[in-house]
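Forgive a beginner's question, but would it be possible to get a protein, spelled out as residues, together with the matching structure tokens, please?
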Amino acid sequence: MSGPTSGGEGDPQESGRDARAGAGDPRAPQDDPPPGGDDGRASLTADDAATFERCMRVGGVAVFPADTVYGLACEPDLPEAVRRLYALKGRRPDKPAAVMFFDPELAFAALPELGPRTRALLARLLPGGVTALLPNPARRFPLACGPDPDTLGVRVPALPPAVAALVAVRWPVLQSSANAAGAADARRLDDVPAAIRREADLVLDGGELPGTPSTVIDFTAEPPTVLRDGAAPAAEAIARMRRPPSASEFDTHSHG
């Protein structure tokens, strides 16, 4: 089966804040952003994380740094925000994206249908550079699922120190890589197409990222199958999943 192939993500991503990320309405008209990282400011701040979260709440679209590549993000349940994100990329609306959580426990809480074994396996991989394709029997976040609402792509990034402030975000986001559909992923803010930066409501600069999109693992298959090797080496991910489980893993992640 096919699934999301976005990186970090969104996956997929100055003081870390571009001149466009002011304290006012994040959807206000903005000037073109300056080149990323040239002014020596590399880290995002708590204010950046709060502005990002506010942008999601009001239906905006943001360019952000994750643990892999720069991503585009929006509120996953607002059709107009999702339409704008896809239009910025030139991505076909029938292509799936992924939902990113910035804390694995938020992901587990949002997906109570996950069984204890799947939870235990995910806890070995997340946070990390993995997009997990999960069974979605409740058809949650349908706008992220493309033509297959029974499968949901989920990301929980392992954020590097420069962008770690985003762990404070309690809001799930629909995310896709911040590039034109089919083009190279953006490692630096400068690599994000100027048209995307210009039209986004918020642009966050986290400096240079690793540049390799997430590894995609299909948890709807048994055993889980790597569909795309990426930021989390496939061999390492498989080894982690094959490790014999401990009782504490199932005790910790079997709730819900």
In short: The chain has one domain: 46-253.
